[in-house]
Specification:
The chain has eight helices and four strands; from the N terminus they run βαβββααααααα. The chain has about 240 residues and is α/β, with parallel strands linked by helices. It has a four-stranded mixed beta sheet, with helices on one face.
Length: about 240
């Protein structure tokens, strides 16, 4: 994974430190990808929210913009994992009726990766003096889980029926994305190689609006056999 951190304004953080946290983040998510090649990722900083841009670099490089700074390493990791997940999904423009699901999936990737890093850093932190920071990574993830859990006694299927229309037009409602993410997390932590399935989620994406059920059917259809089970598990969350 080739991550190129531009000098930019990181509000006091050193470029080498930013490079280290993003490289660690990338490794702990990308290792579960089903792709074996990845174009370089150019990372800049700004104050308009994190995003991976549709417009690529001159040689096909991905362009990711973060919105963080100083030594907020958990926030760097959280934002970068989200954008890397979009890259793993082979993000592209098209109908946005079900884009809320990809956004939720990428929020799940952020939580998952922070928890994975907290384990990795116990033995292999980017720098020796960062080892104890693994507890902050885990805590940052847990805070998001606790803040956005489903209401007690409610299934995700029931919750989705209540919010389906809102999600169609508010794909980046982060609170709701995170509620879905906390439920998806169980599936991907149970078997992390399921992240390989996300590479096929946008294969059938067009400008034509489709139902969420059709969206899942298309995803499953384009998955190789080993990943169809992942889509089945996801679908099960949305069915009572």
């Amino acid at each position: 994974m080739n991550i190129v951190v531009t000098e930019g304004v990181w509000k006091g953080a050193g470029v080498n430190d930013v490079q280290a946290i993003l490289s660690s983040t990338g490794r702990d998510l990308w290792k579960f990808s089903s792709d074996d090649r990845l174009k370089p990722i150019i990372v800049t900083n700004g104050d308009e929210g994190p995003i991976v841009l549709y417009r690529r670099g001159p040689n096909g490089e991905y362009r990711v913009r973060l919105d963080t700074g100083k030594q907020y390493w958990s926030q760097y990791a959280y934002q970068f994992a989200h954008e890397l997940c979009h890259i793993m999904c082979h993000y592209k423009e098209g109908d946005r009726s079900n884009h809320w699901f990809e956004e939720s999936l990428c929020e799940c990737a952020s939580i998952f990766t922070l928890r994975e890093m907290s384990k990795t850093w116990e033995k292999n932190p980017p720098f020796v003096n960062w080892k104890d920071y693994r507890e902050s990574l885990a805590s940052y993830a847990l805070d998001r889980i606790e803040e956005h859990r489903l209401p007690k006694g409610q299934t995700l299927a029931a919750w989705y029926r209540e919010h389906a229309e809102h999600l169609k037009t508010h794909a980046t409602d982060r609170a709701k994305n995170s509620t879905v993410a906390t439920e998806l997390l169980k599936i991907f932590e149970e078997k992390p190689t399921r992240w390989g399935a996300v590479a096929f989620i946008n294969k059938a994406r067009t400008n034509e609006p489709i139902s969420f059920s059709t969206y899942l059917n298309n995803w499953r259809e384009h998955c190789p056999g080993e990943y169809k089970e992942t889509v089945d598990r996801v679908r099960g969350l949305f069915v009572d």
